[in-house]
Request: fold
Amino acid sequence: MRRTRSGPSIREFLHYYVLVLLAEHSRTRRELIEEIRERSIGNRSYRSSGVLWVASVEMDKVLSNLLERGFIRLDSPRGKWAITWHGRRARRRMEREKPSKSDTKERAAEKILALLEDAPSNSYILDVGTGEGFLAFKLAHEAFRVLGIDSCSLQYSKDSIEKAQEQARPEGGNVEFRQADIRHFDQPDDTFDYIVSSQAMHCMENPPECLKAIYRLLKAGGRFLCIDFLVGLEGFLAHGFHCFLAASREEWTEMLVEYGFGNIRMYELDDYLLVEAEKQ
Ligand SMILES: C[S@@+](CC[C@H](N)C(=O)[O-])C[C@H]1O[C@@H](n2cnc3c(N)ncnc32)[C@H](O)[C@@H]1O
Reply:
């Protein structure tokens, strides 16, 4: 069954991208939805459900809003929407407003360290989808005990744990790396004080199952801190259709509540979203 996407984050992107598509040529509502689906087809290489299917009701809301603002008009006999001069200007304005960003991921990682400022130094932290240890090493330098795991299941991540282990050797004892898929990670319940993740949830095969495993492995009162792409205009302008592999703010809230997390907080850092949640 196909999964359609909706909510404010998707609408924010659509307010821009419908103007981009109509600047090429006029299209019906159905053609707009199909075209977005086609252009995001590359996301399938990560997850079959990664393609962006916009819910018709969201497209309707956006079209009527753009019409009200004079950015588009309906070419009635053909049922096609066309962009107006005001629409072209609005599109260019949105592109100009795109902030120049180069170090957002670093800033997001620093925000995680700041959120852990009061954590006891003997805290045991799991970094899920650690890759070559981007977050794990930063946390180890703060004197936390860190375990980084990675499934090494993607084309580019096959050797990541090996590379992280090599880099860890001169670091001494407080950082360790293992190859493991979080869904089948063989550790007792309630093992970790914190679980962190950087730019990894979007490429996991089944994010809800991963979140369920994360919940199980956290101690009660432990926190999950996760950085990933921001779904919306800024995420799209920086990462293209790839950003839709991530969960939107609304989808995160829904998933976290479903698996029992509470005290949910979200921080937007340009094209990244940092999610913080506590095991109740
Ligand atoms: C884009 S990389 C991010 C690496 C690193 N955290 C960083 O920020 O640079 C995502 C990583 O998640 C890993 N991954 C994907 N699914 C996973 C799973 N189910 N369990 C553990 N790791 C997974 C991939 O192998 C990949 O190395």
Observations:
- The mean pLDDT is 94.
- The CA atoms of residues 121 and 144 lie 5 Å apart.
